[in-house]
Amino acid sequence: MSFFGFGQSVEVEILLNDAESRKRAEHKTEDGKKEKYFLFYDGETVSGKVSLSLKNPNKRLEHQGIKIEFIGQIELYYDRGNHHEFVSLVKDLARPGEITQSQAFDFEFTHVEKPYESYTGQNVKLRYFLRATISRRLNDVVKEMDIVVHTLSTYPELNSSIKMEVGIEDCLHIEFEYNKSKYHLKDVIVGKIYFLLVRIKIKHMEIDIIKRETTGTGPNVYHENDTIAKYEIMDGAPVRGESIPIRLFLAGYELTPTMRDINKKFSVRYYLNLVLIDEEERRYFKQQEVVLWRKGDIVRKSMSHQAAIASQRFEGTTSLGEVRTPGPLSDNNSRQ
Amino acid sequence: MSDTAVADTRRLNSKPQDLTDAYGPPSNFLEIDIFNPQTVGVGRARFTTYEVRMRTNLPIFKLKESCVRRRYSDFEWLKNELERDSKIVVPPLPGKALKRQLPFRGDEGIFEESFIEERRQGLEQFINKIAGHPLAQNERCLHMFLQEEAIDRNYVPGKGCALGHRCEAVH
């Protein structure tokens, strides 16, 4: 968000020192548009310069001080007046005086703590931005520049699978399994649904990804559920003993990492919802939380190495219809 | 876990399906037909009954085949019982057609063939929707409606199958 003072005599720009090399990431704005912002991680230094250019070189600009701030704040949409700042750093660039010509002021915020990930949601927004202010008697000149912060994690030590038997007594028993409980944002959910008892007429089955944004505390807790994805995994009526596989690629969906109680203001959690629909449109479902985390980009291995890994996966499988005599597998295995 | 660039997407291991399960009859067979409407009585005391024939292999029903005669008010009774006792959203019945019961109509009113057929279809849809609902299957009134000769309006409402049935259901 940025605005120019109307009819101001000076133009303010915030420029980063590493603007050429720094990556930019897409982030959704409040009105749903996607824009690119400079990407920062926790602990990185934010340095650059504030450049002032006088529109009329002959006119002098009197001011009460020039400063630059680095702010990390949480904004609840139903309480816009109160911004909760969890990071607030300031550097004074100039004492009260006069600007007679266009000039630039260097600044550096060293190893800034950025504990949370940038988030724009239904009822809450967490953002980081630089704000340059030229204080004046009547109205200040302010320029803001948003940045995006990602929080990275590594593979969790403990990542057990989720396996449960659920159902309705004497009507429907299923055992569902998801291979992990914690998935990174480009991961694949691999699972299966095993039917132990089917006494209802099932029409189809789907798996939904639900995002729940919780804002507020105590008696004023507010949940906002959003179905991010609906993915049909079975069409038709299963019988006892059937196993339906699940393979859901997360990279295709707009997901954020799981955020728990950020600054005691909000949470963003994700759930997998397994839904069975019967002939009369009745829905039977089981919701299960999964933890999402962001993996840092790794250096890509060469394509041939990736292809070699991928082909290893399918050793031992054959497509239906082929009759094979047991023997050593040739290189001409058909892929599934 | 190794940090490979390609995710492991192999299927999870699963038990192979027993062929008798795969090719055997499905255990969710439930069919209810409403047919053979008959108007009984004379004059103002006439009413129409429908045959309600049920075939099923669900263990929760005591009889695997049953055939009873029911009239529209019996269906209304069932709807009221379910709305009061069970937590389900009961589907609508076909209309009461009060207008058709007024005198001085040009046609047969509620005994008109086309009306009876319309009503028959509506009742068939209604009972099939209800009987397949796992929560409705718990209600004694449903079992009495489908499988007992006469509806005892002084029955004791409750969960569990029809009286006299040895039920293995655990709640």
Layout: helices, strands, pairs:
The complex is a heterodimer of chains A (about 325) and B (about 170).
Chain A: E1 10-16, E2 24-28, E3 34-40, E4 46-54, E5 61-63, E6 66-76, E7 83-94, E8 97-99, E9 103-109, E10 119-120, E11 124-134, E12 141-149, E13 162-168, E14 172-178, E15 182-184, E16 188-198, E17 202-215, E18 222-235, E19 243-249, E20 259-262, E21 266-278, E22 283-293, H1 303-313
Parallel strand pairs in A: 3-12, 15-22
Antiparallel strand pairs in A: 1-4, 2-3, 4-9, 5-8, 6-7, 6-11, 10-11, 11-12, 13-14, 14-16, 16-19, 17-18, 17-21, 20-21, 21-22
Chain B: H1 19-23, E1 30-40, E2 47-56, E3 65-71, H2 72-85, H3 113-131, H4 140-147
Antiparallel strand pairs in B: 1-2, 2-3
Order of helices and strands of chain A: EEEEEEEEEEEEEEEEEEEEEEH
**What is the helix fraction of residues of chain A, given as a range?**
under 10%
The largest β sheet of chain A comes out as:
7 strands, mixed
CATH topology name of the largest domain in chain A? Immunoglobulin-like
Determine the structural class of chain A based on helices, strands and strand pairing: mainly beta
Distance N terminus to C terminus of chain B?
42 Å
The general outline of chain A is elongated
Taking all residues together, what is the mean pLDDT of chain A? 88
Poorly predicted ranges of chain B (pLDDT <50, ≥5 residues)? Answer: 165-171
The helix-and-strand class of chain B reads alpha+beta
User: How would you describe the shape of chain B?
Assistant: elongated
Question: What share of residues are in beta strands of chain A?
Answer: over 45%
Rg value of chain A: 27 Å
The average pLDDT score of chain B comes to: 87
Reported for the largest beta sheet of chain B, the result is: 3 strands, antiparallel
Order of helices and strands of chain B: HEEEHHH
Number of helices of chain A: 1
Which residues of chain A form runs of ≥5 with pLDDT under 50?
1-6, 317-325, 327-336
| Spatial arrangement of strands, main beta sheet of chain B | 1-2-3
The CATH architecture of the largest domain in chain A can be given as: Sandwich
GO cellular component, one term (chain A): postsynaptic early endosome
Main location (chain A): other
InterPro entries (chain A): Arrestin-like_C, Vps26-related
Family (chain A): Belongs to the VPS26 family.
